[in-house]
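Dear Dr. H.,

I hope your travels went smoothly. While you were away I took the liberty of generating a structure for the chain from your last submission, since the lab meeting agenda had it listed for discussion. I wanted you to have the full record in hand beforehand rather than looking at slides cold. The sequence, exactly as received, is reproduced here:
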Amino acid sequence: MGQIFIPGDAVPGDVAAPKKFSAGTNYQTAGTLPDRRGNPAAGQYITAVSARADSGGNIVMEPPLGVYGPGKNTGGFGTLIANDPNFVPANWPSNKTMFGTPGTMPTYPLGTNITNAWADGQGNMSFGFPVGAYLQGGGFGNPGTTELHNFDPSHKASNILKGVTLLGITGNGSTAAFASGYSDPVGTTNVVNGLSFTPTLIVVEVVMGAWDNTIRAVWNGRTQWPTANTFSSWMDGTRHITVSWSVYAGGFSVVASGNGNSFYWFAWG
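The corresponding predicted structure, in token form, is as follows:
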């Protein structure tokens, strides 16, 4: 018996199941191509073989083999689906919409206050801030940058040592100078010169045999101690020394009544 050959080149894999076709040696043969056209109406989805964003605002999906048609289910969705657990509204700002879904991540304007600030004393600072998206803007002469705000009234140039830069601010505050030494008298006068500053506070100490018998005098530019420019008592409690101070740029002198005394001195400026 001869074989009937019907015009056409379709094969079962070209025809949606369970439709029948006749072509070539196939006569009333059922197709095998999956028919997915009824899925939206049935509320079903077909998972994409692959899905990838092209960084241009598009998601490109590769469908499984089959026949597809237009249509949406009652939820307003079509047939093909791809899943990424990170693609949820909480992961994009509330002022942006992706594929019809608005984000729920909070947004904060320029200059939003931080919640906390910490310093470790080693040159590092940490800042706490509300979780969310921060809108770009220009603050303090930095257009196009995202900015958080932390107010600290002490963070100003006058409170930072001169020449030291702290978080972008170069200080112009004064630096406390200090020097110390030992002075022997010439007659009744002790002279200290060669300082790089004008003293604003001076302490002199005369040791009378032991440190527990120290005689001390202080000058701070306004007051002098002990009262009436007088050292505290000598070791025997019977002698006092009246002193007068002369303070100038680069040094100072102390004139004592009676015998001069060697002393340790400490000066700040």
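Two observations you may find useful: Residues 226-239 have pLDDT under 50 and may be disordered. The first strand starts at residue 20 and ends at 23.

With kind regards,
E. W.
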